[in-house]
């Protein structure tokens, strides 16, 4: 624990010490090209409409294409780990089950979107983050805080949206990469994109294959393979009308441990079409039809199962521009269908449910005061009606500093597992949705070459779903989550810096214990330097201890890891990249499993360990 505390203190000091350098860069920025666009990016997830980060009245983090290319992560969870307010737990490395906690809320209490299409399992309520290839995306937005009044169920802790490339103006631009490294890993990707005559296109494919690493001490390697394809097309007519489509599909398998060798075959898929019409100078209407698919076929020593979720959604959104103000009004219909889902030959008591919703938002600009108001009504076939709303106020203190305050409500829908799991006594069809209220205060400083952002919040969750003494889910608990986040970034003289410090206090109000698997302190520092044809970078991520269980008896120590990266421009269009993950070969775990002692019928816990030091090298062709 002392090691982690010293690492955390060192990281905090180093991150904050970098700010005076950024101040120096600010003072001399008149002689440089301003990087304001990168440090204050346009975001769309926070308000269903484009706003710069400082105008969004939300706590938002953007990981842009440049950062994704520099870090070249193997998993989306590597990108999210340690970001402000974000905690990630895994049951091993390379395609193993992962959970993403935002502001202390559960993995099934936040929303994953891919180009506006939600992807998750309706049986668990959570997304399969571990099966998404980062090379398919050019941007990620992390919005922290409740967004139930915009996105409906489960947007309690926040929303993560991944954006695929849409194609840039010009002729076809190919990109090809190939590489490999530790654990007999191989990775390939290729894409072709461009735009001409109002038509944009992007085609991409990738393959990742590894023998993997042990997920428990003295265990066998657990392999993973993933093949992904992506197609995105759009066309804009002279009238301003636009049509488009998206299709993304990942398919593969991952080995894991379930009291013996086990394997999942998986499919992750999103597909959608849309049309956007400028009906008048002030009124734009957009209709989107989509289907998301989450499929997992499991074979383990003691059981087999097949779970699939098909979520079909129709959304109609209308945007009205009223001078400096903007109003968004829409309606949405969605259906979750479990298809042939079963476990050990037993099917669910209910296999589908639908949800009808209407929503409205007002973005009102009375400079220096700005206001966002939103309201949404959901009517779900399984658990009834829910009304959510939010109010956010922003005030510009001057050209560089702004205050924000917000209040929002949200709810988490009971999952199919909680409502209808086929084992006798293991589900409860009378469950109600978890509901939450969140208050947040924030302040941001935005300069030419750097920024900082601080937020403090408090979330109260009622009707928390937990297991009773007979392991049946019931609405009994209440939770209180308090926290604060400080983030900063700078770009100057070839340097790119980003740092995040997170404090979270997620408490079960009934017991006073910390919620399971949540760390309370997290830090992340990313440093990159451009040196002509060379680039160098490092990331330092540290978290304190957590408990695997709600009783706070199974303690998992904190950890700190260092990742290194380097790039070399070999020739025009050709580059070489190398990464070293977990430089110090740190053994760490963020989750535990359990074996059953057949003699005593007692559970014997074990740590799910992450991979040790790993090196990867790849060659790239393209812009």
Write the layout of secondary structure elements.
Layout: H1 2-27, H2 36-39, E1 42-43, E2 51-52, E3 59-63, H3 65-71, H4 76-80, E4 86-90, E5 98-102, E6 110-114, E7 117-118, E8 139-144, H5 148-151, E9 158-163, E10 170-181, E11 185-196, E12 199-214, E13 221-236, E14 242-257, E15 261-278, E16 283-299, E17 304-322, E18 325-337, E19 342-343, E20 346-347, E21 352-366, E22 369-380, E23 384-396, E24 401-412, H6 416-420, E25 434-446, E26 450-467, E27 473-492, E28 495-508, E29 521-531, E30 534-543, E31 546-547, E32 555-556, E33 559-571, E34 574-581, E35 589-597, E36 602-609, E37 614-621
Parallel strand pairs: 6-9
Antiparallel strand pairs: 1-2, 3-8, 4-5, 6-7, 8-9, 10-11, 10-37, 11-12, 12-13, 13-14, 14-15, 15-16, 16-17, 17-18, 17-19, 18-21, 19-20, 21-22, 22-23, 23-24, 24-25, 25-26, 26-27, 27-28, 28-29, 29-30, 30-33, 31-32, 33-34, 34-37, 35-36
């Amino acid at each position: 624990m002392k090691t982690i505390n010293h690492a955390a203190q060192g990281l905090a000091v180093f991150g904050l010490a970098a700010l005076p350098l950024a101040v120096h860069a600010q003072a001399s920025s008149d002689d440089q090209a301003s990087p304001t666009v990168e440090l204050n990016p346009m975001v769309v997830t926070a308000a269903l409409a484009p706003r710069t980060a400082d105008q969004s009245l939300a706590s938002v983090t953007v990981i842009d294409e440049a950062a994704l290319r520099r870090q070249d992560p193997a998993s989306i969870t590597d990108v999210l780990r340690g970001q402000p307010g974000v905690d990630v737990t895994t049951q091993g490395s390379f395609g193993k089950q992962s959970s993403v906690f935002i502001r202390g809320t559960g993995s099934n209490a936040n929303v994953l979107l891919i180009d506006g299409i939600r992807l998750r399992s309706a049986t668990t309520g959570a997304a399969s983050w571990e099966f998404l290839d980062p090379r398919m995306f050019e941007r990620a937005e992390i919005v922290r805080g409740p967004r139930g009044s915009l996105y409906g169920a489960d947007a309690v802790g926040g929303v993560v949206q991944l954006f695929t490339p849409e194609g840039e103006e010009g002729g076809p631009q190919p990109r090809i990469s190939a590489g490999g490294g530790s654990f007999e890993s191989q990775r390939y990707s290729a894409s072709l994109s461009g735009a001409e005559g109002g038509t944009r296109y992007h085609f991409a494919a990738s393959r990742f294959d590894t023998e993997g690493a042990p997920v428990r001490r003295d265990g066998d390697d657990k392999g993973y393979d993933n093949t992904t394809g992506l197609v995105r097309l759009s066309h804009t007519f002279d009238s301003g009308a636009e049509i488009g489509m998206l299709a993304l599909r990942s398919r593969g398998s991952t080995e894991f441990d379930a009291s013996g060798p086990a394997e999942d075959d998986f499919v992750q898929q999103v597909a959608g079409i849309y049309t956007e019409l400028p009906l008048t100078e002030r009124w734009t209407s957009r209709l989107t039809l989509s289907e998301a698919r989450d499929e997992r076929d499991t074979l383990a020593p003691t059981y087999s199962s097949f779970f699939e979720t098909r979520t079909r959604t129709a959304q109609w959104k209308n945007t009205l521009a009223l001078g400096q103000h903007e109003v968004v009004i829409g309606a949405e219909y969605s259906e979750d269908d479990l298809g042939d889902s079963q476990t050990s030959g037993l099917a669910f008591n209910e296999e589908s449910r639908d949800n009808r919703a209407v929503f409205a938002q007002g973005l009102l600009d009375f400079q220096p005061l700005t206001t966002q108001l939103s309201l949404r009504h959901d009517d779900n076939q399984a658990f009834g009606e829910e009304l959510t709303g939010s109010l956010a106020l922003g005030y510009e203190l001057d050209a560089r500093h702004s205050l924000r305050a917000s209040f929002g409500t949200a709810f988490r829908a009971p999952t199919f597992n909680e409502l209808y799991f086929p084992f006798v006594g293991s589900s409860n069809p009378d469950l109600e949705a978890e509901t939450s209220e969140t208050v947040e205060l924030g302040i941001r400083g935005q300069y030419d070459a750097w920024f900082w952002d601080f937020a403090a919040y408090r979330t109260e969750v009622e009707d928390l779903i937990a297991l009773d003494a007979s392991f049946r889910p019931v609405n009994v608990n209440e939770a209180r989550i308090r926290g604060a986040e400080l983030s900063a970034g700078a770009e100057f003289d070839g340097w790119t810096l980003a740092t995040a410090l997170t404090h979270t206090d997620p408490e079960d109000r009934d017991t006073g214990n910390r919620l399971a698997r949540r760390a309370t302190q997290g830090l992340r520092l990313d440093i990159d330097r451009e040196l002509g044809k060379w680039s160098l970078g490092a990331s330092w991520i540290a978290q304190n201890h957590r408990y695997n269980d709600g009783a706070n008896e199974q303690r998992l120590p904190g950890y700190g890891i260092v990742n290194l990266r380097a790039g070399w421009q070999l020739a025009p269009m050709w580059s070489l990249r190398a990464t070293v993950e977990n430089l110090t070969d740190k053994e760490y775990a963020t989750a535990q499993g359990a074996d059953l002692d057949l003699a005593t019928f007692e559970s014997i816990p074990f740590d799910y360990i992450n991979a040790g030091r790993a090196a990867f090298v790849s060659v790239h062709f393209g812009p």
